[in-house]
Amino acid sequence: MRKSYFAVSTLFFAVFSGTYAMAASNPDLEALQTEIRQMKQAYEKRISELENKLAKLTVAKTETTEMAQAAPDGGAGKKIHGNEFNPSIGVILNGKYSGFSSDSSNIAGFGVGEEGERGREGLGLDESALNFAGSIDDKFYGGLTVAVVREAGEDKVELEEAYVQTLSGAGLPQGLSVKAGRAFWTFGYLNEHHTHADDFADRPLPYRAFLNKAFNDDGLEVSYVLPTDLYTEVGGGVFRGDDFPLGNATGDGGGAWSAFARLGGDIGENKSWRLGAYLLSGESDGGRSSNEDAVTFIGDSDLYAADLRFTWAPTGNAREREVIVQGEYFRRNEDGSYEDTDAGTGAVAFDDSASGWYAQAVYKFLPQWRIGVRYSLLEAAGAPAGLAGSALDAEGHDPEATAVMLDWTNSEFSRVRLQYNHEELSRGQNDDQIMLQYIMSLGAHGAHTY
Amino acid sequence: MKSLLVATLIAGLALLAPVPASASAQVSVFACEPEWASLAEEIGGEMVETFAATNARQDPHYIRARPSLVAKMRKADLVVCSGGGLEAGWLPQLFQKAGNAKAQPGGNGYLMAADVVPVLEKSAALDRSMGDVHPEGNPHVHLNPHNILLVAKELSSRLKALDPANTAYYQKRYEEFSRHWQQAIGRWENQAAGLKGKGIITHHKAWSYLINWLGLNLVNTLEPKPGIPPSTRHLEDLLQQVRKVPVLAIVRTPYAPGEASEWLSEKSGVPAVVLPYTVGGEAGITDLFLLFERTLGRLRETADAQR
């Protein structure tokens, strides 16, 4: 290509310069020569530019061919496009049979929210959940979980989670991530996990009394993983303050905050641990109602928690056998007023603290079989004189519960569980419970969190 | 309680201080499996600091996203894994938790072996009734030595991109490794010629690439379906099958439970063999060369004993 261009233009110039050379005077000739030289230079420049472009195109073409060869099925077959970027979808199917020996199930000394109550007796569905999650773009990840629950004889749709979270490509400092929306926030161990991932068929007493099963308010949380060999994470959040254990639905929002710190590591190749401390603080100006709206608390709540989880598996291979020991401790300070309309107490000033803990051990003795035992205990605050005889008067009784479970896991996606509970939630109450539960997950591969 | 929170916070912050200065001079490699840690050492030499998230006695499908792994991921410059869904249960969790901008999908710091080698057993129609199958194909890619070479090439170019100052060093090490490895492949393929067409039973489909490379014949797997433990009924069926078809060995990884293969071996007389599967899978298997030497050696011994 270059050669032919050059030959033609040289010939052209030669003919031109020759003709003019004979006719024109010297100054004219010089001017003309200069002009021709300039033209020639301009042409050569353009030619080399074109050549460069061509060379680049050729390289690019070779690269694409190589790539196409490397991925033989890429674009070869006809495909209908449009659903490649759908988020991962998971469906949780969950049902249980429960039998209880006692009619009453009030937790003495505590105002308990609807989801913290004992489950329904007989056959029934538990939470059926639908979740979607996926990367939104290079910077954000998003998720949505919708649960359908049976409450007060009706199937209700609950928006459990709707959050966005920064990905590592978001340009934030290394180790920092931000999550916003509604989510099961970082607080203790179980709170972050969906109930279908729990090791028992029901949540332990402290979760029922202090968190109404789980804290999933609207808000924003920041977490930072430190660049240390020992896993160290610190973080905190601000929340609207609507969800139990807060409750200022009529307030202006932004009424609650949290802080947390976690440490964790391995001991040898087969043991690992994680320890955490948490604080959730907020106001319940609009009133936190519980016990089917009979009990209302107005005031400030500070909830502290500490959790420890320890796992052991021979050679670190959790697939075959594993022991998991886990415990959490909660303490709640409340300053405000309580009212129990059923007992007709009127608003009674209250400034005291209550606490509770649970500890559990689960042993996977065969790849598909696990047994577990759990003990939970609550210590209610001493009821002021004005609340004597109300739901908030524990009469010196510490509610306690013991659970034993056996479960069979066919694959990562299906599990059947038998559980026995013995609960003494108020003075003189004895409740023997039996539960048979199935939990199946359909769709997206579940991740194994620690 | 407040004091506990404060104490934990202080403990956390105190740990911030001793960040080793020497680590910054090296490329920190987070390998999901020991084979990739070993390969990173072959190519990276002294310029890389490798960490293997799992060992040969752990099933890489079932790893918990442990706090210690998050801490390691947080500091990694390059993540090298099998990919193809093998780590789907825990790797995404680590990425999300660690917030590591250096090693993110699509970048130089993220290398999945299954993305750079020809993947076997890609299935068009998938259903979970088929077990824990990977839609991306079989992810146990490292047991074909030709794949190791492909990953080594990609790994060397990633190291050069991440640490351009040592480009020549990585190139030299890659060329050396590549030369030795190709010689070894030639040797191994000669040695293994007699194994061609032999029947083999494996616990899980973790051996497909080895079988494919050596031209072995996979008679069946002990797992009725991938990820589903062997059932009595399936083992009885296998026993009938083994009595009809000649089988060289019942092969399993060091992390697989032995009961099913030992039972079948005892009933059928076919030897049950634990192959190292990866680096560290047996005492003395300290690199990839030894891994293949021992694997082939063991298979040939088994074949010789049956002659």
Describe this entry's structure for a reader.
The complex is a heterodimer of chains A (450) and B (307). In chain A, 16% of the residues lie in helices and 46% in strands. With 450 residues, chain A is of the alpha+beta class. The longest helix of chain A has 45 residues, at 26-70. The radius of gyration of chain A is 35 Å and the shape is elongated. The two termini of chain A are 66 Å apart. Residues 6-24 and 58-78 of chain A have low confidence and may be disordered. The longest helix of chain B has 25 residues, at 167-191. A 4-stranded parallel sheet of chain B has the order 2-1-3-4, covered by helices on one side. In chain B, strands 6-5-7-8 form a 4-stranded parallel sheet. By secondary structure, chain B is α/β, with parallel strands linked by helices. Chain B has 2 domains: 24-119 and 128-187, 3-Layer(aba) Sandwich (Rossmann fold), CATH 3.40.50; 193-306, Nitrogenase molybdenum iron protein domain (Rossmann fold, 3-Layer(aba) Sandwich). Helix content of chain B is 43%, strand content 11%. In chain B, helix 3 (67-74) packs across helix 4, helix 6 packs parallel to helix 10 and helix 8 packs parallel to helix 9. Classes of the chains: A alpha+beta (450), B alpha/beta (307). Chains A and B meet through strand 8, strand 9, strand 10 and strand 11 of A and helix 1, helix 3 and helix 4 of B.
